[in-house]
Structures are given as structure tokens and as C-alpha cells.
Amino acid sequence: MQAPTGSTSLMASTTSGIEPVYEFEFIRRDRLGEHAIRHYLYEEWYTKHEKELKHKEIERPDYFVSANDLSPEDHVMVQATIQKYVDASISKTVNAPKSHTVEDVKRIYTMAYDQGLKGIAYMREGSRQGVLERKPLLKDATGKAENKVQLPTIKPRPMVVHGATYKIDTPVGRAYITINTNGNNEPHEVFMTIGKAGTDVFAMAEGLGRMISMYFRSTAHLTPEERIKNVIKELQGIGGGRTLGFGKERVRSLPDAVAKVLRMHFEYLNKQKNQFTKNTTNMGISNGNGNGNGKVEDAELVSQLEQPTLLEDPDHSAPLIKQEAESQDMHFDICKECGQALLAREEGCAKCYGCGYAEC
Questions:
Q1: Bridge-partner residues for 189, per DSSP?
Q2: 129 and 161 together in one domain
Q3: Cβ atoms within 10 Å of 58's Cβ, excluding its own
Q4: Same domain membership, residue 199 and residue 132
Q5: H or E segment and range at residue 124
Q6: β-strand 132-134 against 25-30: which pairing, if any?
Q7: Cβ count near 255 (within 10 Å)
Q8: Which residue intervals of 176-333 are DSSP H helices?
Q9: Are residues 126 and 183 in the same domain?
Q10: In angstroms, how far is CA 7 from the centroid of its own chain?
């Protein structure tokens, strides 16, 4: 009756009516997985003081009072104040802790009756698993409660994602590397196709892509930029049996090629983002839909993203990935004799260019 409350206010991103804020930071589970949600007012404060919070230099201010910070008696008295001016029954929740006993519940209902309430909605914390949960608290050596470390989980893949596919030559053959991002251009998944299905190189490429994707979709407390940098740092410079190219275009292995493509892709996205911000500022755009003194059409932005500068370095001096590969389109597999990725299938036989092994 006093909508919006509960899930309605969450979907509408607005006030919860006469209900106090359930929790300024909580875990919500739905069909898309588990999400950490912050109240928009707390989000503003959290963004400004995120570093201090991580280093435990400051704590959340006392004026952020949530529904779980109030006692059940406080909830009853809030409803009693509103009930004086409402003829119908009010659907306001009385939040109670897990420690509440049957006698405590009886006392709350009796108190509500004495205050003239026509009904109450009683919610004992933990009674509805899997919907809303406040972050678990642990007590340190001083007896002070602190946030429990949440184990990272893997976010489910949405039905549709968008990205780009790069063609790059590696020492084990031509690879097609697809990088998909979410709506905020944050890394989401990586796919790699190289060689023919059934080969060892194909299997390892698929496994490498799955592991990178799982890391990108994990809920570990790392920013998207930190995850990208970590993957690039671990993969770049890994060498194999041979290399391809010279100078900055030198590709030492398939993992090294993945690192180069990741760096190029997200550097380009950041460049486009900064350029768009600069253009909108200079053109006097007043809001996000392009209305104002200057108007940027979506088609123009799409055309910018599709320019071949995606395949070039920032100075446009030398292409990092050539659209027309100069090397021969040959794929190599791993030789079971020497272990190098120099086993080529040609003329109806598999031959190793490293040790001379031949299957036939």
C-alpha cells in the first residue's frame, strides 16, 4: 500500500517509501547470478573512499542506518507513527535478528497490537535464503565486527555479448582471437581458434581461452583494468620453439599473441572512450542521448569503432597486426618426439621441422 517498497524500489532505483534502506551494501541473488548492490547514496560515498576502506583506514559513517541496524521495536514504532494517518493496513516489514525466539516474536506482535497497528510483516533474518543477504560479519581479536571475505564466484554468461575478432599469425599458425566485453566495455571472455579441431594446439588454445574467460568473469575484488593487466603480464613474453616477426611485431608464442591482442584491444577502447568524452565536452552535449548544442549520432560512433586504426599503433607508424598476413597459412601441432610445436601435416604425412620425425 505504501509502494514502492522492497523489490519494486530496487527495480525502479528509487526510495523504498516508509521502509528504511534494507542495507546500503548487500548481496542479491537472481536468475542472472549473485550481485553486490549498493544504495546510490552510499555508492557516491564509497567511490570517494574506496581506497581508505580497502586499507581499513576509515569505517562507514554512522548516519548510514539500515533496516538491520534498527531494533524490531524501532520498526514497530515507525509503523505506528504512519498508521495514525493511514486507514488501511500497512505492509511494512519488521526486521528481526536470527537470535529472535518465539517469546520475542510474541512480544513484538503484542507491542504492535497495543500501538493500534492493523497488521505487521515480520521478517527474521535468514528465514528466506537466497534472496537478500547482508555481508557476513566476523569478529576480530578485539571483538569488533568486520566484513567477512567473500569467496569469488563465476558470473554466468549472458545470452548476447559483443566484441571483436582479431587475425594474427603465430609460430604455430594463424590464430583468430575473439574478445567479448560487457555493456561497460569491461572484459568478459576470450575465444581462440587455431589449427584444426582434434589437434593438441587447438585443444590448448581452447583451454587457455576458457581459463582467461573464467578469470574475467570471476567476482574477485579486482577492477577490470587490474584483471586485464594481470593477464597481459602473465602471458606476454612467453616463448616457444620458434618466433615469428621482428621488433615490436615479434610474436614468441600463442600466449604472447593473446597478450598483444588484449593490450591493443583495450588500449583502443580506452582511447575511444577518452576521445568521446572530449568531443561531447567540446560540443556542449547536455545529456547522454546526444541532445544539446551538438549532436553525435550513434552511426558515427559505430563507424569510428570500425575504422582500421584498430589494427595500428597509436602513432600509426607500423601495423601491429597486418590485415593480409605475409606468412604461409600453415598450422603446426606438437611433435610427440621432441615436444616442439613444429609438426606439420603435408603431402599426406605429419612431419616435424624440428627433429625430423615423420609419422609415415
A1: 180
A2: no
A3: 10
A4: no
A5: strand 121-124
A6: antiparallel
A7: 23
A8: 200-216, 224-235, 254-283, 298-305
A9: no
A10: 23
Q: Distance between CA atoms of 94 and 75, rounded to whole angstroms?
A: 5
CB 155 within 8 A of CB 219: yes
Output the CA–CA distances (angstroms, integers) from residue 285 to 109, 212, 256, 270, in the order listed: 56, 38, 41, 20
End-to-end CA separation in angstroms for the chain: 81
**3 state DSSP class of 85:** coil
Report whether 115 contacts 80 (CB < 8 A): yes
In a domain, 59, yes or no: yes
pLDDT higher than 80, residue 278 = no
Residue 341 inside a domain? The answer is no
121-124 vs 93-96, strand pairing mode? parallel
- Alpha-carbon separation of residue 212 from 43, 167, 180, 215, 251 (angstroms): 29, 18, 12, 5, 19
Helix (H) or strand (E) holding 173: strand 173-181
pLDDT score at 261: 92
Least confidently predicted of 19-23, 214-218, 326-330: 326-330
Q: Nearest-CA neighbor of 280 among 257, 255, 301?
A: 301
| Model confidence pTM above 0.70 | no
3-state helix, strand, coil in the chain (%, to 5): 35, 20, 45
195 and 230 in a common domain: yes
